Amino acid sequence: MAVDLTRPRERGTRPPRPPAPPRFSRPSGWTLAVGGVLLVTFLLRIWGVKHGMPYAFNADENAHFVPKAIGLFGHGYNPHYFVNPPAYTYVLHIVFSVWFGGRDGVYEAYATDPASVFVVARVTAGVAGTLAVWLLYVAGTRLFDRRVGLLAAALFGVSFLPIFYSHLALNDVPTLAPICLALVGAAGVLRFGRVTDYLVAGAGLGFAAAFKYTGGIVILPLLGATAAQFLAAGGRRPALRGLALAGGAAFVAFVVANPYALLSFSEFKDGLTHQTTVADDAIGKLGLTEDNGFLYYLWTFTWGLGFVPAFAALGAVVALWRDERRLVWVLAPAPLLFLLFMGSQTRFFGRWLMPVFPMVCLLAAYAVLELSDGLGKRRPALRPTFVAIGVLALCGQGIVSSLHNGIVLSRPDTRNTTRAWMVANIPPKSKIVVEPVAPDAWASDIGGPVPGGAGNGSRWVKFSTSKENRLPDGSVVAGEGRILNVEDYERSLTPELIDIYEAQRFCWVIVGSTQRGRAEVEAGTVPKALEYYKELERRGQVVHRDSPYAKGKGPVRFNFDWSFDYYPLDYARPGPLMVVYRLHGGLCADVPG
What we know:
Elements (H helix, E strand, L loop, with lengths): L28 H18 L12 H5 L1 H11 L11 H14 L2 H10 L1 H30 L2 H13 L1 H6 L6 H20 L3 H17 L7 H13 L4 H22 L2 H4 L1 H14 L14 H31 L1 H7 L1 H11 L13 H22 L4 H27 L4 H12 L5 E4 L26 E2 L4 E2 L13 E2 L12 H8 L4 E5 H9 L5 H13 E7 L15 H4 L12 E6 L10
Helix pairs in contact: 1-6, 1-7, 3-4, 4-6, 5-6, 6-7, 6-9, 7-18, 7-19, 9-10, 9-11, 10-12, 11-12, 11-16, 15-16, 15-17, 15-18, 15-19, 18-19
Protein backbone atom coordinates (compact mmCIF):
# COMPACT_ATOMS: atom_id res chain seq x y z
CA MET A 1 0.00 0.00 0.00
CA ALA A 2 1.49 3.35 -1.08
CA VAL A 3 1.60 6.21 1.44
CA ASP A 4 0.81 9.80 0.24
CA LEU A 5 3.17 11.96 2.29
CA THR A 6 1.68 15.21 0.93
CA ARG A 7 -1.78 14.58 2.35
CA PRO A 8 -2.33 15.82 5.91
CA ARG A 9 -2.85 13.05 8.42
CA GLU A 10 -6.21 12.89 10.15
CA ARG A 11 -6.21 13.56 13.83
CA GLY A 12 -5.73 10.46 15.98
CA THR A 13 -4.48 8.21 13.18
CA ARG A 14 -1.07 6.73 12.60
CA PRO A 15 0.64 6.27 9.29
CA PRO A 16 0.69 2.65 8.19
CA ARG A 17 3.89 0.79 8.88
CA PRO A 18 5.92 -0.25 5.85
CA PRO A 19 5.74 -3.96 5.17
CA ALA A 20 8.43 -6.02 6.83
CA PRO A 21 11.11 -7.27 4.48
CA PRO A 22 10.74 -10.93 3.51
CA ARG A 23 12.65 -13.32 5.73
CA PHE A 24 14.47 -16.20 4.18
CA SER A 25 15.18 -19.16 6.37
CA ARG A 26 18.66 -20.60 6.26
CA PRO A 27 18.72 -23.84 4.26
CA SER A 28 19.03 -26.91 6.39
CA GLY A 29 22.03 -29.19 6.36
CA TRP A 30 20.04 -31.77 4.42
CA THR A 31 19.13 -29.24 1.75
CA LEU A 32 22.77 -28.22 1.38
CA ALA A 33 23.86 -31.86 1.21
CA VAL A 34 21.33 -32.75 -1.47
CA GLY A 35 22.23 -29.61 -3.39
CA GLY A 36 25.90 -30.53 -3.20
CA VAL A 37 25.22 -34.03 -4.50
CA LEU A 38 23.18 -32.66 -7.40
CA LEU A 39 25.84 -30.09 -8.26
CA VAL A 40 28.59 -32.70 -8.33
CA THR A 41 26.32 -35.03 -10.28
CA PHE A 42 25.63 -32.42 -12.93
CA LEU A 43 29.26 -31.31 -13.24
CA LEU A 44 30.42 -34.91 -13.73
CA ARG A 45 27.81 -35.30 -16.47
CA ILE A 46 28.89 -32.28 -18.48
CA TRP A 47 32.65 -32.52 -17.95
CA GLY A 48 33.95 -33.53 -21.36
CA VAL A 49 30.52 -33.20 -22.97
CA LYS A 50 32.13 -31.95 -26.20
CA HIS A 51 34.19 -35.10 -26.67
CA GLY A 52 34.65 -36.13 -30.29
CA MET A 53 33.13 -32.98 -31.67
CA PRO A 54 32.51 -31.87 -34.35
CA TYR A 55 31.87 -35.53 -35.24
CA ALA A 56 29.52 -37.88 -33.42
CA PHE A 57 31.52 -41.09 -33.33
CA ASN A 58 28.93 -43.16 -31.47
CA ALA A 59 26.93 -44.85 -34.21
CA ASP A 60 23.65 -44.83 -32.27
CA GLU A 61 24.02 -41.18 -31.30
CA ASN A 62 24.80 -40.22 -34.88
CA ALA A 63 21.88 -42.16 -36.37
CA HIS A 64 18.97 -41.99 -33.96
CA PHE A 65 17.66 -39.28 -31.66
CA VAL A 66 19.31 -36.05 -32.83
CA PRO A 67 18.63 -36.53 -36.57
CA LYS A 68 15.16 -37.90 -35.80
CA ALA A 69 14.35 -34.85 -33.66
CA ILE A 70 15.49 -32.55 -36.46
CA GLY A 71 13.51 -34.60 -38.97
CA LEU A 72 10.29 -33.78 -37.12
CA PHE A 73 10.65 -30.18 -38.37
CA GLY A 74 10.29 -31.44 -41.93
CA HIS A 75 7.76 -34.27 -41.91
CA GLY A 76 5.63 -33.61 -38.85
CA TYR A 77 5.38 -35.32 -35.49
CA ASN A 78 5.08 -38.89 -36.68
CA PRO A 79 8.66 -40.14 -36.28
CA HIS A 80 8.07 -43.08 -38.63
CA TYR A 81 10.56 -44.88 -36.42
CA PHE A 82 9.71 -46.94 -33.36
CA VAL A 83 12.70 -49.25 -32.93
CA ASN A 84 13.44 -46.84 -30.09
CA PRO A 85 10.43 -45.10 -28.51
CA PRO A 86 10.25 -41.41 -29.42
CA ALA A 87 9.86 -39.63 -26.05
CA TYR A 88 13.48 -38.46 -25.95
CA THR A 89 13.20 -37.47 -29.62
CA TYR A 90 10.23 -35.23 -28.77
CA VAL A 91 12.11 -33.72 -25.82
CA LEU A 92 15.04 -32.87 -28.07
CA HIS A 93 12.69 -31.43 -30.69
CA ILE A 94 11.26 -29.05 -28.10
CA VAL A 95 14.69 -28.14 -26.72
CA PHE A 96 16.03 -27.49 -30.22
CA SER A 97 13.02 -25.32 -31.03
CA VAL A 98 13.66 -23.16 -27.99
CA TRP A 99 17.45 -23.09 -28.09
CA PHE A 100 17.94 -22.51 -31.81
CA GLY A 101 14.79 -20.49 -32.46
CA GLY A 102 12.82 -22.93 -34.59
CA ARG A 103 13.30 -24.94 -37.75
CA ASP A 104 15.53 -22.56 -39.72
CA GLY A 105 17.89 -22.06 -36.79
CA VAL A 106 18.20 -25.79 -36.18
CA TYR A 107 18.80 -26.54 -39.86
CA GLU A 108 21.51 -23.91 -40.11
CA ALA A 109 23.23 -25.07 -36.92
CA TYR A 110 23.15 -28.72 -37.98
CA ALA A 111 24.64 -27.87 -41.37
CA THR A 112 27.34 -25.42 -40.28
CA ASP A 113 28.01 -26.28 -36.63
CA PRO A 114 26.64 -29.76 -35.79
CA ALA A 115 28.70 -29.80 -32.60
CA SER A 116 26.40 -27.16 -31.09
CA VAL A 117 23.36 -29.35 -31.75
CA PHE A 118 24.89 -32.50 -30.28
CA VAL A 119 26.20 -30.66 -27.23
CA VAL A 120 22.72 -29.27 -26.48
CA ALA A 121 21.29 -32.79 -26.82
CA ARG A 122 23.98 -34.23 -24.55
CA VAL A 123 23.46 -31.56 -21.89
CA THR A 124 19.73 -32.36 -22.04
CA ALA A 125 20.59 -35.98 -21.23
CA GLY A 126 22.83 -34.79 -18.38
CA VAL A 127 20.05 -32.63 -16.93
CA ALA A 128 17.68 -35.61 -17.07
CA GLY A 129 20.30 -37.74 -15.31
CA THR A 130 20.64 -35.13 -12.56
CA LEU A 131 16.86 -35.01 -12.16
CA ALA A 132 16.90 -38.79 -11.77
CA VAL A 133 19.38 -38.47 -8.89
CA TRP A 134 17.11 -36.02 -7.06
CA LEU A 135 14.04 -38.20 -7.60
CA LEU A 136 15.94 -41.20 -6.23
CA TYR A 137 16.70 -39.17 -3.10
CA VAL A 138 12.97 -38.51 -2.70
CA ALA A 139 12.13 -42.18 -3.22
CA GLY A 140 14.79 -43.29 -0.74
CA THR A 141 13.54 -40.81 1.85
CA ARG A 142 10.04 -42.20 1.51
CA LEU A 143 11.06 -45.85 1.60
CA PHE A 144 13.67 -45.53 4.35
CA ASP A 145 14.84 -42.15 5.63
CA ARG A 146 16.80 -39.12 4.47
CA ARG A 147 20.16 -40.76 5.18
CA VAL A 148 19.45 -43.70 2.89
CA GLY A 149 17.95 -41.42 0.28
CA LEU A 150 20.98 -39.15 0.29
CA LEU A 151 23.52 -41.97 0.15
CA ALA A 152 21.60 -43.77 -2.62
CA ALA A 153 21.47 -40.51 -4.60
CA ALA A 154 25.21 -39.95 -4.08
CA LEU A 155 26.01 -43.48 -5.26
CA PHE A 156 23.72 -43.11 -8.26
CA GLY A 157 25.24 -39.70 -8.98
CA VAL A 158 28.82 -40.95 -9.28
CA SER A 159 28.28 -44.42 -10.77
CA PHE A 160 30.25 -44.91 -13.95
CA LEU A 161 27.68 -46.09 -16.49
CA PRO A 162 25.10 -43.33 -15.81
CA ILE A 163 27.94 -40.79 -15.85
CA PHE A 164 29.40 -41.96 -19.15
CA TYR A 165 26.09 -42.23 -20.99
CA SER A 166 25.08 -38.77 -19.81
CA HIS A 167 27.75 -37.61 -22.26
CA LEU A 168 25.87 -39.03 -25.25
CA ALA A 169 22.58 -38.00 -26.83
CA LEU A 170 20.98 -41.39 -26.25
CA ASN A 171 17.82 -42.36 -24.38
CA ASP A 172 19.44 -44.55 -21.73
CA VAL A 173 20.04 -41.83 -19.11
CA PRO A 174 16.86 -39.79 -19.78
CA THR A 175 14.87 -42.98 -19.11
CA LEU A 176 16.22 -43.04 -15.55
CA ALA A 177 14.26 -39.89 -14.59
CA PRO A 178 10.78 -41.38 -15.11
CA ILE A 179 11.98 -44.67 -13.61
CA CYS A 180 12.90 -42.80 -10.43
CA LEU A 181 9.61 -40.88 -10.59
CA ALA A 182 7.80 -44.22 -10.64
CA LEU A 183 9.85 -45.28 -7.60
CA VAL A 184 8.72 -42.11 -5.79
CA GLY A 185 5.13 -43.12 -6.52
CA ALA A 186 5.68 -46.76 -5.51
CA ALA A 187 7.24 -45.60 -2.24
CA GLY A 188 4.16 -43.48 -1.60
CA VAL A 189 1.89 -46.41 -2.37
CA LEU A 190 3.75 -48.53 0.18
CA ARG A 191 3.84 -45.92 2.91
CA PHE A 192 0.58 -44.02 2.37
CA GLY A 193 -1.56 -45.75 -0.26
CA ARG A 194 -2.95 -42.45 -1.55
CA VAL A 195 -4.56 -42.02 -4.95
CA THR A 196 -1.94 -39.45 -5.92
CA ASP A 197 0.81 -41.97 -5.20
CA TYR A 198 -0.73 -44.49 -7.56
CA LEU A 199 -1.07 -41.81 -10.22
CA VAL A 200 2.57 -40.72 -9.84
CA ALA A 201 3.77 -44.33 -10.02
CA GLY A 202 1.65 -44.98 -13.10
CA ALA A 203 2.75 -41.81 -14.85
CA GLY A 204 6.40 -42.62 -14.18
CA LEU A 205 5.89 -46.12 -15.56
CA GLY A 206 4.25 -44.85 -18.75
CA PHE A 207 6.88 -42.20 -19.38
CA ALA A 208 9.71 -44.66 -18.65
CA ALA A 209 8.41 -47.10 -21.28
CA ALA A 210 7.96 -44.20 -23.73
CA PHE A 211 11.63 -43.27 -23.33
CA LYS A 212 12.97 -46.83 -23.50
CA TYR A 213 10.85 -49.95 -23.71
CA THR A 214 12.82 -51.76 -21.03
CA GLY A 215 12.03 -48.88 -18.66
CA GLY A 216 8.74 -50.71 -18.14
CA ILE A 217 10.57 -52.91 -15.63
CA VAL A 218 9.63 -50.30 -13.03
CA ILE A 219 6.14 -51.83 -12.97
CA LEU A 220 7.51 -54.43 -10.54
CA PRO A 221 8.13 -51.99 -7.63
CA LEU A 222 4.60 -50.68 -8.15
CA LEU A 223 3.16 -54.20 -8.06
CA GLY A 224 5.17 -55.03 -4.94
CA ALA A 225 3.93 -51.92 -3.13
CA THR A 226 0.36 -52.57 -4.25
CA ALA A 227 0.55 -56.16 -3.01
CA ALA A 228 1.65 -54.89 0.40
CA GLN A 229 -1.37 -52.58 0.51
CA PHE A 230 -3.65 -55.35 -0.72
CA LEU A 231 -2.59 -57.65 2.13
CA ALA A 232 -3.02 -54.97 4.79
CA ALA A 233 -6.21 -54.85 6.82
CA GLY A 234 -8.94 -53.16 4.78
CA GLY A 235 -6.55 -52.53 1.91
CA ARG A 236 -7.97 -54.86 -0.72
CA ARG A 237 -10.41 -52.46 -2.37
CA PRO A 238 -8.16 -49.36 -2.21
CA ALA A 239 -5.28 -51.39 -3.65
CA LEU A 240 -7.33 -52.67 -6.58
CA ARG A 241 -8.76 -49.23 -7.25
CA GLY A 242 -5.31 -47.65 -7.00
CA LEU A 243 -3.79 -50.23 -9.34
CA ALA A 244 -6.48 -49.50 -11.91
CA LEU A 245 -5.76 -45.78 -11.62
CA ALA A 246 -2.02 -46.42 -11.97
CA GLY A 247 -2.66 -48.50 -15.09
CA GLY A 248 -4.75 -45.72 -16.58
CA ALA A 249 -2.11 -43.12 -15.74
CA ALA A 250 0.58 -45.30 -17.31
CA PHE A 251 -1.43 -45.67 -20.51
CA VAL A 252 -2.11 -41.93 -20.75
CA ALA A 253 1.53 -41.03 -20.06
CA PHE A 254 2.78 -43.51 -22.65
CA VAL A 255 0.39 -42.18 -25.29
CA VAL A 256 1.18 -38.53 -24.48
CA ALA A 257 4.89 -39.23 -24.96
CA ASN A 258 4.36 -41.63 -27.87
CA PRO A 259 1.06 -40.64 -29.54
CA TYR A 260 1.73 -42.38 -32.83
CA ALA A 261 1.83 -45.70 -31.06
CA LEU A 262 -1.94 -45.42 -31.52
CA LEU A 263 -2.17 -43.05 -34.50
CA SER A 264 0.19 -45.19 -36.57
CA PHE A 265 -0.19 -48.52 -34.83
CA SER A 266 1.14 -50.67 -37.68
CA GLU A 267 4.43 -48.74 -37.77
CA PHE A 268 4.66 -48.93 -33.98
CA LYS A 269 4.06 -52.68 -33.99
CA ASP A 270 6.72 -53.24 -36.66
CA GLY A 271 9.28 -51.17 -34.77
CA LEU A 272 8.53 -52.91 -31.49
CA THR A 273 8.80 -56.31 -33.14
CA HIS A 274 12.17 -55.38 -34.59
CA GLN A 275 13.41 -54.12 -31.23
CA THR A 276 12.41 -57.30 -29.42
CA THR A 277 14.54 -59.33 -31.83
CA VAL A 278 17.65 -57.13 -31.56
CA ALA A 279 18.67 -58.23 -28.08
CA ASP A 280 18.27 -61.86 -29.12
CA ASP A 281 20.31 -61.61 -32.31
CA ALA A 282 24.03 -62.24 -32.15
CA ILE A 283 24.46 -62.64 -35.90
CA GLY A 284 26.91 -60.06 -37.19
CA LYS A 285 28.19 -59.01 -33.78
CA LEU A 286 31.73 -60.09 -34.42
CA GLY A 287 33.74 -59.53 -31.27
CA LEU A 288 30.94 -60.40 -28.87
CA THR A 289 32.87 -63.28 -27.34
CA GLU A 290 30.93 -63.59 -24.09
CA ASP A 291 28.59 -66.58 -24.14
CA ASN A 292 26.81 -66.20 -20.80
CA GLY A 293 24.64 -63.10 -20.45
CA PHE A 294 23.97 -63.70 -16.76
CA LEU A 295 27.68 -63.66 -15.94
CA TYR A 296 28.22 -60.70 -18.24
CA TYR A 297 25.64 -58.56 -16.44
CA LEU A 298 26.87 -59.66 -13.03
CA TRP A 299 30.32 -58.55 -14.16
CA THR A 300 28.83 -55.28 -15.41
CA PHE A 301 27.48 -54.53 -11.93
CA THR A 302 31.03 -54.73 -10.55
CA TRP A 303 32.33 -51.86 -12.70
CA GLY A 304 29.26 -50.05 -14.00
CA LEU A 305 28.05 -49.55 -10.43
CA GLY A 306 30.87 -50.97 -8.30
CA PHE A 307 31.97 -54.08 -6.41
CA VAL A 308 30.89 -52.82 -2.99
CA PRO A 309 27.43 -51.61 -4.14
CA ALA A 310 26.78 -54.92 -5.88
CA PHE A 311 27.58 -57.03 -2.82
CA ALA A 312 25.98 -54.54 -0.43
CA ALA A 313 22.70 -54.81 -2.36
CA LEU A 314 22.72 -58.57 -1.84
CA GLY A 315 23.30 -58.07 1.86
CA ALA A 316 20.43 -55.58 2.00
CA VAL A 317 17.99 -58.18 0.69
CA VAL A 318 18.94 -60.49 3.56
CA ALA A 319 18.68 -57.71 6.15
CA LEU A 320 15.35 -56.43 4.85
CA TRP A 321 13.90 -59.94 4.76
CA ARG A 322 14.45 -59.87 8.49
CA ASP A 323 13.56 -56.23 9.21
CA GLU A 324 10.83 -55.20 6.74
CA ARG A 325 9.96 -57.85 4.23
CA ARG A 326 7.63 -55.56 2.26
CA LEU A 327 10.64 -53.60 1.01
CA VAL A 328 12.18 -56.76 -0.43
CA TRP A 329 9.12 -57.21 -2.67
CA VAL A 330 9.32 -53.58 -3.77
CA LEU A 331 13.04 -53.38 -4.58
CA ALA A 332 14.43 -56.87 -5.21
CA PRO A 333 12.28 -58.46 -7.96
CA ALA A 334 13.05 -55.86 -10.66
CA PRO A 335 16.87 -56.31 -10.64
CA LEU A 336 16.58 -60.08 -10.39
CA LEU A 337 14.00 -60.58 -13.14
CA PHE A 338 15.66 -57.99 -15.38
CA LEU A 339 18.97 -59.81 -15.00
CA LEU A 340 17.30 -63.13 -15.85
CA PHE A 341 15.53 -61.71 -18.89
CA MET A 342 18.39 -59.68 -20.36
CA GLY A 343 20.93 -62.37 -19.53
CA SER A 344 18.92 -64.93 -21.49
CA GLN A 345 19.42 -62.96 -24.72
CA THR A 346 22.34 -63.56 -27.04
CA ARG A 347 23.45 -59.92 -27.27
CA PHE A 348 24.27 -57.88 -24.20
CA PHE A 349 25.78 -54.49 -23.45
CA GLY A 350 26.44 -52.86 -20.11
CA ARG A 351 24.19 -49.85 -20.67
CA TRP A 352 21.18 -52.12 -21.09
CA LEU A 353 21.43 -52.87 -17.37
CA MET A 354 20.91 -49.27 -16.20
CA PRO A 355 17.09 -49.35 -15.72
CA VAL A 356 17.56 -51.33 -12.48
CA PHE A 357 20.44 -49.26 -11.08
CA PRO A 358 18.12 -47.05 -8.96
CA MET A 359 16.73 -50.05 -7.05
CA VAL A 360 20.21 -51.50 -6.50
CA CYS A 361 21.48 -48.12 -5.25
CA LEU A 362 18.69 -47.96 -2.66
CA LEU A 363 19.44 -51.46 -1.43
CA ALA A 364 23.19 -50.83 -1.28
CA ALA A 365 22.80 -47.55 0.64
CA TYR A 366 20.53 -49.22 3.19
CA ALA A 367 23.00 -52.08 3.73
CA VAL A 368 25.98 -49.78 4.30
CA LEU A 369 24.14 -47.56 6.78
CA GLU A 370 22.71 -50.54 8.64
CA LEU A 371 26.19 -52.01 8.98
CA SER A 372 27.64 -48.65 10.09
CA ASP A 373 24.88 -48.24 12.68
CA GLY A 374 25.40 -51.76 13.96
CA LEU A 375 29.10 -51.18 14.45
CA GLY A 376 28.36 -47.77 15.96
CA LYS A 377 26.24 -49.31 18.69
CA ARG A 378 29.25 -51.26 19.87
CA ARG A 379 31.60 -48.28 19.63
CA PRO A 380 29.45 -45.12 19.82
CA ALA A 381 32.45 -42.81 19.68
CA LEU A 382 33.49 -44.31 16.36
CA ARG A 383 30.05 -44.21 14.77
CA PRO A 384 30.83 -41.17 12.52
CA THR A 385 34.02 -42.89 11.43
CA PHE A 386 32.14 -46.07 10.52
CA VAL A 387 29.64 -44.07 8.50
CA ALA A 388 32.41 -42.18 6.69
CA ILE A 389 34.22 -45.42 5.86
CA GLY A 390 30.97 -46.96 4.62
CA VAL A 391 30.20 -43.97 2.39
CA LEU A 392 33.71 -43.97 0.96
CA ALA A 393 33.64 -47.71 0.35
CA LEU A 394 30.26 -47.47 -1.37
CA CYS A 395 31.03 -44.48 -3.59
CA GLY A 396 34.82 -44.64 -3.93
CA GLN A 397 35.00 -46.80 -7.05
CA GLY A 398 32.41 -44.66 -8.80
CA ILE A 399 34.21 -41.45 -7.87
CA VAL A 400 37.54 -42.69 -9.22
CA SER A 401 36.07 -44.06 -12.47
CA SER A 402 33.92 -40.97 -13.08
CA LEU A 403 36.80 -38.56 -12.47
CA HIS A 404 38.92 -40.62 -14.85
CA ASN A 405 36.04 -40.54 -17.34
CA GLY A 406 35.93 -36.74 -17.20
CA ILE A 407 39.68 -36.44 -17.74
CA VAL A 408 39.61 -38.82 -20.70
CA LEU A 409 36.60 -37.26 -22.43
CA SER A 410 37.97 -33.73 -22.03
CA ARG A 411 40.95 -34.61 -24.23
CA PRO A 412 41.07 -34.80 -28.06
CA ASP A 413 39.75 -37.97 -29.67
CA THR A 414 42.35 -40.02 -31.54
CA ARG A 415 40.19 -39.94 -34.67
CA ASN A 416 40.28 -36.15 -34.67
CA THR A 417 44.01 -35.91 -34.09
CA THR A 418 44.56 -38.46 -36.84
CA ARG A 419 42.34 -36.45 -39.15
CA ALA A 420 44.29 -33.28 -38.34
CA TRP A 421 47.49 -35.08 -39.34
CA MET A 422 45.84 -36.24 -42.56
CA VAL A 423 44.71 -32.71 -43.42
CA ALA A 424 48.30 -31.55 -43.04
CA ASN A 425 49.93 -34.47 -44.87
CA ILE A 426 47.47 -36.06 -47.33
CA PRO A 427 46.50 -33.78 -50.24
CA PRO A 428 42.82 -33.18 -51.05
CA LYS A 429 41.31 -35.57 -53.59
CA SER A 430 43.72 -38.34 -52.55
CA LYS A 431 42.28 -41.84 -52.40
CA ILE A 432 42.09 -43.33 -48.92
CA VAL A 433 40.76 -46.44 -47.21
CA VAL A 434 39.16 -45.77 -43.82
CA GLU A 435 37.80 -48.52 -41.66
CA PRO A 436 34.28 -47.77 -40.37
CA VAL A 437 35.45 -46.26 -37.08
CA ALA A 438 34.12 -42.80 -37.97
CA PRO A 439 31.03 -41.44 -39.75
CA ASP A 440 31.15 -40.53 -43.45
CA ALA A 441 31.24 -36.83 -42.51
CA TRP A 442 34.73 -37.42 -41.08
CA ALA A 443 36.11 -37.28 -44.63
CA SER A 444 34.50 -33.84 -45.12
CA ASP A 445 35.14 -30.45 -43.63
CA ILE A 446 32.32 -29.07 -41.49
CA GLY A 447 30.47 -26.18 -43.07
CA GLY A 448 31.08 -26.74 -46.76
CA PRO A 449 32.94 -28.54 -49.55
CA VAL A 450 36.73 -28.58 -49.63
CA PRO A 451 38.31 -26.52 -52.44
CA GLY A 452 40.03 -28.96 -54.73
CA GLY A 453 38.57 -31.91 -52.89
CA ALA A 454 36.46 -34.83 -54.10
CA GLY A 455 33.47 -34.13 -56.28
CA ASN A 456 30.97 -34.96 -53.55
CA GLY A 457 32.30 -32.23 -51.27
CA SER A 458 34.58 -34.53 -49.28
CA ARG A 459 38.25 -33.76 -48.75
CA TRP A 460 39.37 -37.23 -49.87
CA VAL A 461 37.99 -40.01 -52.05
CA LYS A 462 37.03 -42.93 -49.81
CA PHE A 463 37.15 -46.58 -50.76
CA SER A 464 33.66 -47.99 -50.32
CA THR A 465 33.33 -50.04 -47.15
CA SER A 466 29.53 -50.13 -47.28
CA LYS A 467 29.17 -52.59 -50.17
CA GLU A 468 30.91 -55.85 -50.90
CA ASN A 469 31.20 -58.00 -54.03
CA ARG A 470 33.23 -60.83 -52.56
CA LEU A 471 31.41 -63.95 -51.40
CA PRO A 472 32.50 -65.98 -48.35
CA ASP A 473 34.14 -68.56 -50.64
CA GLY A 474 36.39 -65.87 -52.16
CA SER A 475 34.58 -65.57 -55.52
CA VAL A 476 33.56 -62.16 -56.85
CA VAL A 477 30.09 -61.30 -58.11
CA ALA A 478 29.28 -58.63 -60.67
CA GLY A 479 27.24 -55.52 -59.94
CA GLU A 480 27.13 -53.26 -56.91
CA GLY A 481 27.25 -56.12 -54.43
CA ARG A 482 25.51 -56.50 -51.12
CA ILE A 483 25.14 -53.89 -48.42
CA LEU A 484 27.93 -54.31 -45.87
CA ASN A 485 27.04 -53.39 -42.31
CA VAL A 486 29.65 -52.07 -39.92
CA GLU A 487 29.35 -55.34 -38.01
CA ASP A 488 30.30 -57.29 -41.14
CA TYR A 489 33.28 -55.24 -42.23
CA GLU A 490 35.91 -57.59 -40.80
CA ARG A 491 34.24 -60.52 -42.55
CA SER A 492 34.87 -58.80 -45.91
CA LEU A 493 38.64 -58.41 -45.48
CA THR A 494 41.07 -60.57 -47.45
CA PRO A 495 44.76 -60.09 -48.31
CA GLU A 496 43.83 -59.61 -51.98
CA LEU A 497 42.33 -56.23 -51.12
CA ILE A 498 45.86 -54.77 -50.85
CA ASP A 499 46.33 -55.50 -54.56
CA ILE A 500 43.05 -53.76 -55.34
CA TYR A 501 44.08 -50.71 -53.30
CA GLU A 502 47.37 -50.39 -55.13
CA ALA A 503 45.81 -50.99 -58.55
CA GLN A 504 43.23 -48.25 -57.95
CA ARG A 505 45.65 -45.86 -56.19
CA PHE A 506 44.08 -46.04 -52.74
CA CYS A 507 47.47 -45.47 -51.19
CA TRP A 508 46.60 -44.48 -47.60
CA VAL A 509 44.92 -47.07 -45.36
CA ILE A 510 43.61 -45.99 -41.95
CA VAL A 511 43.04 -48.77 -39.40
CA GLY A 512 41.21 -48.43 -36.08
CA SER A 513 41.49 -50.86 -33.17
CA THR A 514 37.72 -50.96 -32.60
CA GLN A 515 37.50 -52.75 -35.95
CA ARG A 516 40.71 -54.76 -35.97
CA GLY A 517 40.10 -55.81 -32.37
CA ARG A 518 36.91 -57.63 -33.36
CA ALA A 519 38.89 -59.90 -35.64
CA GLU A 520 41.67 -60.44 -33.13
CA VAL A 521 39.34 -61.70 -30.38
CA GLU A 522 37.60 -64.08 -32.83
CA ALA A 523 40.54 -65.16 -34.93
CA GLY A 524 38.97 -68.50 -35.81
CA THR A 525 35.89 -66.82 -37.25
CA VAL A 526 37.63 -64.41 -39.63
CA PRO A 527 41.10 -65.81 -40.41
CA LYS A 528 41.20 -63.93 -43.72
CA ALA A 529 40.90 -60.61 -41.86
CA LEU A 530 43.99 -61.41 -39.79
CA GLU A 531 45.86 -62.34 -42.98
CA TYR A 532 44.76 -58.99 -44.44
CA TYR A 533 46.28 -57.06 -41.52
CA LYS A 534 49.52 -59.03 -41.74
CA GLU A 535 49.73 -58.30 -45.46
CA LEU A 536 49.03 -54.63 -44.82
CA GLU A 537 51.81 -54.50 -42.22
CA ARG A 538 54.20 -56.24 -44.62
CA ARG A 539 53.52 -54.00 -47.61
CA GLY A 540 52.53 -50.76 -45.94
CA GLN A 541 54.63 -48.16 -44.17
CA VAL A 542 53.31 -46.80 -40.86
CA VAL A 543 53.36 -43.03 -41.33
CA HIS A 544 51.24 -42.01 -38.35
CA ARG A 545 49.93 -43.53 -35.13
CA ASP A 546 47.58 -42.12 -32.46
CA SER A 547 47.16 -44.08 -29.23
CA PRO A 548 44.40 -43.55 -26.66
CA TYR A 549 46.46 -45.19 -23.91
CA ALA A 550 48.52 -43.60 -21.19
CA LYS A 551 52.28 -43.97 -21.54
CA GLY A 552 53.29 -47.53 -20.82
CA LYS A 553 49.66 -48.71 -20.67
CA GLY A 554 47.44 -50.77 -22.94
CA PRO A 555 46.39 -52.21 -25.19
CA VAL A 556 42.95 -53.08 -23.80
CA ARG A 557 41.51 -56.29 -25.24
CA PHE A 558 38.51 -55.57 -27.45
CA ASN A 559 35.19 -55.48 -25.65
CA PHE A 560 31.91 -53.91 -26.74
CA ASP A 561 31.81 -51.91 -23.51
CA TRP A 562 35.34 -51.02 -22.47
CA SER A 563 36.58 -50.33 -26.01
CA PHE A 564 33.95 -47.61 -26.34
CA ASP A 565 33.40 -46.22 -22.83
CA TYR A 566 37.11 -46.14 -21.82
CA TYR A 567 36.50 -47.49 -18.32
CA PRO A 568 39.99 -49.04 -17.81
CA LEU A 569 42.51 -46.64 -16.31
CA ASP A 570 44.83 -47.50 -19.22
CA TYR A 571 42.97 -44.92 -21.31
CA ALA A 572 44.26 -41.35 -21.40
CA ARG A 573 41.95 -40.02 -24.12
CA PRO A 574 38.98 -41.22 -26.17
CA GLY A 575 39.03 -43.10 -29.43
CA PRO A 576 40.58 -46.26 -30.84
CA LEU A 577 44.24 -46.87 -31.60
CA MET A 578 44.57 -45.27 -35.05
CA VAL A 579 47.28 -46.30 -37.52
CA VAL A 580 47.85 -44.76 -40.97
CA TYR A 581 49.64 -46.94 -43.53
CA ARG A 582 51.17 -45.70 -46.81
CA LEU A 583 51.25 -48.18 -49.70
CA HIS A 584 54.04 -47.83 -52.26
CA GLY A 585 53.44 -50.82 -54.56
CA GLY A 586 51.60 -50.94 -57.88
CA LEU A 587 50.26 -47.59 -59.08
CA CYS A 588 50.82 -46.13 -55.60
CA ALA A 589 54.51 -45.92 -56.49
CA ASP A 590 53.68 -43.00 -58.79
CA VAL A 591 51.45 -41.15 -56.30
CA PRO A 592 53.27 -38.27 -54.58
CA GLY A 593 53.29 -38.04 -50.79
